[in-house]
Design brief:
Elements (H helix, E strand, L loop, with lengths): L1 H11 L23 H7 L5 E7 L9 E18 L15 H25 L7 H19 L11 H30 L10 H5 L5 E4 L3 H7 L4 H12 L3 E2 L1 H4 L2 H8 L4 E5 H15 L3 E5 L4 E10 L5 H17 L1 H7 L3 H12 L12 H57 L17 H10 L1
Parallel strand pairs: 3-4, 3-5
Antiparallel strand pairs: 1-7, 2-5, 2-6, 2-7
Family: Belongs to the glutamate-gated ion channel (TC 1.A.10.1) family.
Organism: Tropilaelaps mercedesae
GO molecular function: ligand-gated monoatomic ion channel activity
Length: 446
């Protein structure tokens, strides 16, 4: 609009001074006053508001609008990442979690069915609970190995088990080929990002929505009777998204928008201008996307003070109309969109294929790591079972020893009393006859 002001001043030979409103707003009615540029005219601080301002019914009693400068409309600005962020469970998520749950349930069911067939043919193999659990684990492992194209350790002995095993093998081959093909497609084909084209789609999201505070856009969305618009404005209030234009297009908000974590509702002219300013900086992260659904079409024009000279206003309207008919205003607007066209061409060209790095195959590495941790855990469980058994036996032995110790001591006391020597006075005397030689020997030795 600076070009419009310069052309009007040069053709009508007047000078002008530009003054911006302190609040940075365009004009919203408060209780007894107006904000923004409309407030400057209402409070006799300005004669003309370049804007251009939207012609709304509540502004008509306050200012006089000139000729139409352009017709604009509101739309939604969002974004999407240039590359899909790799997931740690990306390989497993080739199938939905419901598919994996169905596979586990199917293996368990067919293992129980095989156990039933074996019980019918050879009941001695499943005569008790321990044998049943052992055979169930065997069949579960067998059918799980079939998913990985690994043969069974033993052949089925009955026709029922053979048919069941063959049917499972056929299903496993089809399922795993589908898994492999879908994984290749996911790695080679770039997934289509989620795009927001309308207020109805935006209302289903739970993310920050930014609106230009103090404009007719905020008033229109706030006072709308549409349930989708009401939901969107509730998101604006929830995340405090009503703000000035400088705050609305700050780097923090634009990072959220480019990642698809936020949205801006504004007119197409302002959105394209802001996109052109920093599209090159964010192309490594993602791309902007403008919704296809346009709403709230409105005419934009200059606003004049009610006491502004009518003759001068008509001359200014005439020259503004000439600029519009000659396409000068559109030319001045598009001169600020050069970077936007270059960014769009670069985004359309795409990126060359890249080699897979560790970040993209982290899901396979994570599966290996989980397997290692699980095997180590099982080793500790098995070792702990032996240690627990030894500890249990040791504790049981100690308890038995404590229980049997009083009985043992009692038996020992009884045996000592039975073996206790009698006093010498009470001992019986026995006379032994010996030869004289032995008698002399005992006498000399003692």
């Amino acid at each position: 609009m600076r070009h419009v002001a310069d052309n009007l001043a040069s053709s009508l030979s007047f000078e002008y001074v530009i003054e911006a409103p302190e609040d940075g707003e365009w004009g919203v009615k408060t209780e007894n006053n107006w904000t923004g540029m409309i407030g400057m005219i209402y409070n006799n601080r300005s004669d003309v508001a370049l804007g251009p301002l939207a012609l709304t019914e509540n502004r008509l009693p306050v200012v006089k609008f000139g000729g139409i400068v352009m017709v604009d409309y509101l739309t939604i600005l969002t974004g999407y990442l240039s590359r899909a962020e790799p997931s740690a469970f990306g390989a497993l998520m080739t199938f939905d979690w419901t598919v994996w749950l169905t596979v586990v349930a199917s293996i368990s069911t067919i293992s129980l069915l095989s156990l039933l067939f074996e019980r019918n043919s050879t009941p001695e193999k499943v005569s008790n609970l321990d044998k049943c659990m052992e055979r169930f684990y065997h069949y579960f492992e067998t059918y799980l190995k079939a998913m990985l194209a690994e043969s069974a350790t033993e052949m089925p002995q009955t026709n029922a088990l053979r048919v069941l095993s063959q049917m499972w093998w056929m299903g496993a081959i089809v399922l795993m080929n589908a898994f492999t093909g879908h994984m290749k497609a996911m790695m080679m084909v770039k997934p289509e990002p989620t795009r927001i084209d309308s207020m109805a789609m935006l209302a289903k999201k739970d993310m920050p929505v930014f609106l230009w505070k103090g404009t007719s856009y905020e008033t229109r969305v706030k006072n709308s009777t549409s349930p989708h618009d009401k939901k969107v404005y509730s998101l604006v209030e929830k995340y405090h998204g009503a703000m000035s234009i400088d705050d609305m297009f700050c780097k923090r908000n634009m990072r959220q928008v480019i990642r698809g974590q936020g949205a801006i509702v504004s007119d197409i002219v302002v959105l394209k201008y802001q996109m052109a300013l920093n599209c090159r900086e964010v192309m490594s992260v993602g791309n902007y996307y403008i919704g296809t659904d346009d709403f709230y079409p409105h005419t934009l024009s200059l606003a004049f003070h009610n006491n502004f000279p009518e003759s001068v206003r008509k001359e200014m309207d005439k020259r503004v109309r000439w600029m519009v008919e000659l396409g000068l205003i559109n030319q001045w607007l598009y001169s600020h969109y050069d970077n936007l066209d270059e960014c769009a061409a670069m985004a359309k060209a795409g990126e060359p294929p890249e080699a897979l790095d560790l970040e993209k195959i982290q899901s396979a590495l994570l599966v290996w790591f989980i397997g290692v941790l699980l095997s180590i855990l099982l080793m500790f469980v098995e070792s702990g079972r032996t240690i627990i058994c030894c500890f249990f036996c040791y504790s049981l032995g100690k308890k038995l020893q404590q229980m049997l110790l009083p009985c043992r001591r009692k038996r020992q006391s009884h045996s000592k009393q039975a073996k206790k020597p009698t006093p010498s006075g009470d001992r019986p005397k026995i006379l032994v006859a010996v030869s004289p030689y032995i008698d002399d020997y005992y006498r000399t030795s003692t």
